[in-house]
Amino acid sequence: MKIAIASGKGGTGKTMISTNLFRAAEKEGIDVTLIDCDAEEPNVTEFISGTLTSTKPVTCNIPVIDTNKCVFCGKCHEYCSYHAIVYLPPVKFIKVVEELCHSCGACIEACKFGAIDEKEKPLGMITTSSFNNHANIIEGRANVGIYSPVPVIKESIRCNTESDLTILDSPPGISCPFITTVSRADFVVLVTEPTPFGLNDLKLSVETLRTLNKPFGVIINRAGLGNREVYSWLEENKIPLLAEIKFSREIAHIYSQGKMLVDEIPAFHNIFIDLYKSICNLCK
Amino acid sequence: MNEIAIVSGKGGTGKTVLSAAFATIGEKIVVADCDVDASNLYLILHPKDFQTERFVTGYKAVIDYSTCNNCKLCISYCRFNAINYIEGMVKISETDCDGCILCSRICPSGSVSMVKSNKSYWYIGELPNGRMIHACLAPGEENSGKLVNVVREQARKTAKETGAEIIIIDGPPGTGCPAISSITGVKNAIVVTEPTSSGFHDMKRILDLTAGFKIKTHVVINKYDLNPEVTEQIAVWCQANGYSVIGKLPFDSHVVDAMVNSKSIIEWMPDAEISIKICSIYKTIINN
Questions:
Q1: Does A41 contact B174 at a Cβ distance shorter than 8 Å?
Q2: Quick one: CATH architecture of A67-114?
Q3: Is B10–A43 a contact, with Cβ atoms under 8 angstroms apart?
Q4: How far is A197 from chain B (nearest CA, A)?
Q5: Which CATH architecture has domain B2-56+119-286?
Q6: For a tag site, which of A86, A247, B123, B196 has the least CB within 10 Å?
Q7: CATH superfamily of A2-58+124-283
Q8: Where in chain B is the domain with CATH 3.30.70.20?
């Protein structure tokens, strides 16, 4: 089973939930893999890391135009949907803007003169580590400044050797990186906080998951801050509340040090195992 | 024109709280909410929108099954693995389709057409002290970077029209295309971080990005008192790497109260320590 931990708003506690769920499951002897899909800002290894087993670069193919063979017909420029080819016919100038290229291959199909070749461009790195010999952590890390983390996210999820439980720590937002992650999950846990910002972004995430037809439930983090509006909204919309984590300076301090709740406060072990069980029941 | 971008790398560090505060301090401003994935600033600033425009995020391929002869050529051409052969039919996964149009161009039977995705919008609204440009990306849509560009362009245009000299940009989390679009060409950027190991880590990545664009970047440590040791580590690192920490803001539950009451902390509690500190950060940036 693949569970994605997601949220529209950033900083609601996705990584805290994913790493603690992973640690609790691992302690129970469950065959579990945690994949850090927040390739723009991967944070899982700030909290938990294992023994490095492999690294794998992620690359894409970028076109290279051979101006000796190019007849400056402009067809590649016309085929490019991303305005990634600058073409100035009067001065016979043609150039690929690598930052804008999506590696779709249309320009190569367009060129009838064999003037376009491809070169590899590094996008990021997939790092796999083993944890206590029976669990795995996979991190997808996109290079700073690349156009989209999506190829890195796809590759990091593809690297998973079918574990009984796979946890996907999702990127924030509701656009391509989020969709790429949650569309590959069987169940999505949305983490929110009881504030107007949290609720507003929760509504957007829920709308997105409904269009994708994904089953989901909600965790309210930092309960006690803010107001009760999110609770009544969940009830009205018949969305299961999977767990609540109260705000406390102690929890904030443990988190800030990069430590795990399940290791520092024993009661959290059962909270996370119960969370896992209730998700299993909802998926039946 | 002075454009100030507020970014963070990590989400939830307080970008919007700081942007809302700046927007209620400034006298004649334009506000650009560039977190188009999950925009929240309008919840505090309540712009009175007078203009609404549709935004085309891109195109999605659609197959006409009355003419498709299952040759599967499109599958071999698609580099996004968005086309698959399922139960005897060539199917396009809408969420994987990047809108490159290649399948439509190569289909021998002309069975693939491109359909516009135009469910996203952007808005211009009045504020008591200026105007605000904000946007709403339709759930599941792509190309948020392009929508950010539109918001930025409109903000500059509006600033020229209204004679505003300051544009406040509330940025998105991350370091990818929407974050890049939010900072390109700005004079000053503020990175809001928090004293957590993940906040520290993400701050370094976003500073890499702003350094790459040669943008003068300042650091604000929010909720600094939740972990004074990490705050100190961040401050030391910033000094060693040539970044100025222009403010440390305390954890204050009034910030959440202000948000619940749809107000900025400046409007809600102008005399609180945090409000006074934010005012001094704003002055430092404006006079920079």
A1: yes
A2: 2-Layer Sandwich (3.30)
A3: yes
A4: 6
A5: 3-Layer(aba) Sandwich (3.40)
A6: A86
A7: P-loop containing nucleotide triphosphate hydrolases (3.40.50.300)
A8: 58-117
Which of A104, A180, A252 has the CB atom closest to B102's CB atom? A104
Q: How far is the C-alpha of B203 from the C-alpha of B198, rounded, in Å?
A: 8
Q: How many CB pairs under 8 A join A and B?
A: 186
CB contact under 8 A, B11 and A10: yes
pLDDT digits (tens, 9 = 90+) for B74-106: 999 999 999 999 999 999 998 889 999 999 999
Question: Span B58-117: which CATH code?
Answer: 3.30.70.20
Measured between beta carbons, which residues in chain B are less than 8 angstroms from residue A46? 197-198, 201
Can you tell me the ipTM of this complex? Answer: 0.89
Mean of per-residue pLDDT scores for chain A: 94
Q: Can you point out the beta strands (E) in B15-111? A: 29-33, 48-55, 58-63, 83-86, 89-92
Distance CA A231, CA A245 (A): 14
Show which of residues 98-117 on chain A sit within 8 Å of chain B, judged by CB atoms: 102-106, 109
Residue B156 exposed, middle or buried by CB count within 10 Å (0-12, 13-18, 19+): middle
Within chain B, all domains assigned CATH 3.40.50.300 are found at 2-56+119-286
CA distance to partner chain A, nearest, from residue B59 (Å): 10
In chain A, which residues have their Cβ closer than 8 Å to the Cβ of B195?
256
Smallest CA–CA distance, residue B279 to chain A, in Å, is 23
Q: Does A278 touch chain B (CB under 8 A)?
A: no
- Taking the mean position of all CA atoms in its chain, how far away is CA A253? 25
**Please, which pLDDT band fits residue B145 given cuts at 50, 70 and 90?**
confident
Contact B166, B30 (CB under 8 A): yes
Which among B10, B96, B262 has the least Cβ separation from residue A11? Answer: B10
B250 has a pLDDT exceeding 90:
yes
Q: Are A43 and A156 in contact (CB under 8 A)?
A: no
Tell me, what's the pLDDT at B79?
A: 94
pLDDT of A161 above 80: no
For position A146, what pLDDT does the model report?
85
Query: In this structure, are residues B49 and B123 in contact, taking their beta carbons and an 8 Å threshold?
Result: yes
Residue recorded with tokens 């990091």: A156
| Nearest-CB residue to A174 (from B38, B80, B208) | B38
Phi, psi of B54 (to 5 degrees): -80, 150
**A151 has a chain B CB within 8 A of its CB:** no
> Given this model, what pLDDT does residue B203 score?
97
Query: Which residues from chain B sit within 8 angstroms of residue A111, using beta carbons?
Result: none
What type of residue sits at position A170? S
List chain A residues with CB under 8 Å of B204. none
- Residue A145 has a pLDDT of 82
What pTM value is reported for the model? 0.91
Q: What is the mean pLDDT of chain B?
A: 95
Closest to B151 (Cα-Cα) out of B11, B250, B18, B37: B37
